[in-house]
Amino acid sequence: METLISPFGSLQLQRLPVRKKETLRAWDAADEYLLSHIAETSDQNNLPQQPLIINDTFGCLTLSLAQQKPVMWGDSWLAHSALKHNAQLNSIDISQIKLLPSTESPKYSPTAVFLKLPKNTCLLEEQLKAIRELAPEGTTLVAADMAKHIHSSTLELFEKNFGPTKTSLARKKARLIFSTVDKNITTGFTEFPKTLEHNQMQLVNRSGVFSRQKLDIGTRFFLEHLPVAQQDSSIIDLGCGNGALGVHIGMANSQARLHFVDESYMAVQSAHDSWLTNNLDDRAQFSANDCLSNFPSDSVDIVICNPPFHQGNTVGDQIAWRMFQQSLNVLKKGGELRIIGNRHLGYHIKLKRLFGNCRTIANNSKFVVLSSKKI
Fold it and tell me: Where would a tag sit more exposed on the chain, N or C end, judged by fewer CB atoms within 10 A?
């Protein structure tokens, strides 16, 4: 655990999920830069009330401004959980902080908007359009990120969807973006949610979902090598995205019980929409969650998973390892975890160490489909 020191005081902050010997901080230089800017341009006794804070990863910004009763809006269930966790660490009352998932729009007109750039540009564009409709004319949005993630195309996106835009000088390799609401801009309608078709499946993608424009090649390969489930099997589509894997199994097996899980609110909503769009019945459940932490042990027959190898802009296999560990816990004896991964990630080593077995189902030049069973 490390301590953030900012003009708004000090905070002890942890990343979630909590790991032993964590080497990464729960904030970055862009968070520090944004907090410094807010303090430098505001009277400490007259800070903006109820600011809209968007894509705050671990609660750093929102908790620093807790007394201003902010609204935290974002797509990550884990980010909302991290804010609650870090509030407890610092004995901060968050009863006046509103946590808003990305699938809901703010219901007020914010006069102060602070945003961390999401990795997903389609999500950013949709957020900018939504804020521009809500905020009063002339409101300045202040966005922050590391300079290496801010490109000319990023600034063009702000200009096109929000208003006149400029950037700050870099500080500790971080940069701020200032964009002012122009109500005269004609942005057109958002293209999301959009429906894709693949092998007679209709799949609904919202802007926050991975591979939004078409079904990614890894999922297409995995669809050819999914397990054959018994009629009454209980199956989890873990990290479900738009639900392609679970919907495919649900269409092939009229009695299997499906549960779709993702830490992205938009992914869970997309999976739900995909399920309904394919006229499937009410035997599926949908949860925004941190992997499988709320599932009982020894309760599931099959877990299918296309694990991510990054958390935001941070690359690593810690999320995949957590998925594998929790899958082992929730599977019944004889139950199967089946995954797909890039060949170079070496997931077979981790699975064999954890389950005691790992079998290659299929592979090509880029991907490998692996199966491990709970002994």
Answer: C
